[in-house]
Amino acid sequence: MSKITRKYFFVIAMLLVLFSIYNYFIYSAESYTPSSALTSQAIEGQELWQENNCWSCHQLYGLGGYLGPDLTNVYSNIDKGPLFIKAFLNSGVSSMPKFNFSEGEKDAIIEYLRIVDETGYYPNFDASIERSGWVKIKYKDAK
Q1: What Å distances lie between residue 4 and 8, 14, 32, 116, 129, CA to CA?
Q2: C-alpha to C-alpha distances, 134 to 17, 25, 61, 63, nearest whole angstrom
């Protein structure tokens, strides 16, 4: 084995060792805990959201399509809220189709958007990256 080959072998071995140590500390840290669990009704709403491809037009936390508005905090918006959401699901607009959801399905979507709304603000400019790699953000229920 030539000197250059040994040198590259040593560098690759060191990178693998450092990568393994990094992964050990990241994935063995107990600093992450989910902020909220979805209720069964919210899970149904999330499934409806995905089945009807709402992501293609709307965003949650800035992720999704750009045709419709971001719906992260639509539930707590004083000019909108659950009745506003239900009205749009009932009637649609020129760029949003009219869905034929049952009352239970509408309530499930509203419950899903309520729980999304409770998790935080978007855009959230009060965030920091922890040493473990997790992003720490300001939640609505934090005191």
Answers
A1: 6, 15, 43, 55, 39
A2: 22, 12, 16, 18
Backbone angles phi, psi at 59, to 5 degrees: -115, 150
Q: Mean pLDDT across the stretch 1-12?
A: 88
| 129: phi then psi, degrees, rounded to nearest 5 | -100, 125
Tell me the two tokens of residue 14. Answer: 């060191």
Q: CB within 8 A of 121, min separation 6: which ones? A: 72, 73, 138, 140
How far apart, in whole angstroms, are the C-alpha atoms of residue 114 and residue 19? 40
pLDDT tens per residue, range 82-141: 999 998 888 877 788 888 899 999 999 999 999 999 887 787 777 888 888 888 877 776
Report angle CA 44, 49, 55 to the nearest 5 degrees.
155
